# Entry
Amino acid sequence: MLSLIYKYESEFSHFCFSATDIHAPIGIHKVKIFRDFSNDIRCYNLLHKITEEGIPIYIKSWNSDLKNLKEIIFKEEKIEESKELCLRLHAMVHSSDMSGIGLKTFEDELWENMDEETFRTSTQKKGRTVAYGMWHSTRIEDITMNILVDGGQQVLNAENMIEKINSSIKDTGNSLSPEEILLFSRDIDMYWLREYRKAVGRKTESIIRKLEFKDMKRKILPERLDRVINEGAVLKTEGSVWLIDFWGRKNVAGILFMPVLRHHLVHINESMQAKKKRIK
# Structure
């Protein structure tokens, strides 16, 4: 398998400008490929090609790509490039099934060898389960993109999704205690929670694609923040209501950065901690 990297070494040399943390784990070997590939679709396609031949590619330059997005998102001539980069970053914090990216994503790693008991009962140091982390981060993307950015309907409220997921709550879960998190996690449907994540991710993709340059600096409307409370998406409790003020200070670009991109990575990391704790 190591020969596959060498097989395409000359092709990667065309992209060789700087060293990045792209690794191809092959047994006990890790091969570093030199290239900042974040803006070159040819290099992404080459990574896809290698992945299809059996080598999982883990992209460790996600944060540098995010930094690049911050540098270009308010430049009008870079709006299409910004949206494409945002979509690629977003794809990596969802399952590859959501976007069809053709790469092993951070979420894909989380679901590998996941069983129902680990999903529901294993907790990280804050008492959060995988079930909670995936629900919480998905709800927040659903709320912020569909209500605050787009002014549309939440995915959770469409096609009986809440009933399919079998969730005991419809808010973000910010106020749940560790004991309440375990109770919440006991009955939620793992399959439908994953389907909900895919549906939310795809809806976000469609919203990002239709954004215009003028939208990036657009502030969040107060009436949309009121909708979040009125629809029970955020509770009027000390542990939750601060989200309204937090989101209210942002523009659309700010929502894209946090929570739509970075927030998922936080909770995928926490969920990985819970998963590893169970494995130990």
